[in-house]
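quick q for whoever's on today - can somebody do inverse folding on this one?? i tried earlier but teh output was garbage lol. tokens:
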């Protein structure tokens, strides 16, 4: 099975999550950063995993455009969705639901909330000031959950095998 993991990462957390995930996903896995390749050829993949991150309550415009432009293709594939965010519980679920269109969420064989990170060294001055004011944090924080990533991969692998 040929699998694409596609994402947009501003500060590296979603990219890190995509690479960790790729270690656990079965098949021929390719990782594409939409910051580098905005138009990957989706026709060559059996399954597509879309990873996003939340900044200011939203996913990136590049990712929204990618999903909107390719929705018909995505709905013809096995897909899975993950979100990197610092929030937990109901707030994280709300952000996940807001990030991905309902039709895509309903079609997905797996969905995951991987946690997030605040990496101050990768933020600009304004971003650091906003994060300090909103969260009170002033140093790097990592809540990226490798166990959740493994569980997501296991569910994805199992669902892909069931549909073969």
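ok took a stab at it. sequence:
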């Amino acid at each position: 099975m040929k699998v694409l993991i596609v994402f947009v990462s501003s500060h590296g957390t979603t990219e890190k999550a995509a690479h960790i995930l790729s270690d656990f996903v079965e098949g021929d896995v390719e990782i594409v950063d939409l910051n580098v390749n905005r138009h990957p050829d989706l026709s060559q993949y059996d399954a597509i995993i879309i990873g996003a991150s939340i900044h200011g309550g939203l996913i990136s415009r590049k990712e929204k455009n990618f999903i909107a432009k390719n929705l018909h293709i995505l709905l013809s594939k096995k897909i899975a969705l993950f979100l990197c965010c610092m929030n937990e519980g109901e707030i994280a679920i709300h952000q996940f639901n807001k990030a991905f269109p309902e039709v895509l969420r309903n079609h997905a064989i797996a969905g995951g909330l991987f946690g997030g990170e605040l990496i101050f060294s990768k933020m600009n001055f304004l971003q650091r000031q906003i994060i300090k004011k909103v969260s009170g944090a002033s140093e790097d924080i990592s809540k990226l959950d490798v166990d959740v990533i493994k569980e997501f991969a296991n569910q994805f692998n199992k669902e892909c095998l069931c549909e073969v």
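fwiw The chain has one domain: 2-162. also The longest helix spans residues 146-162. so keep that in mind when u check it
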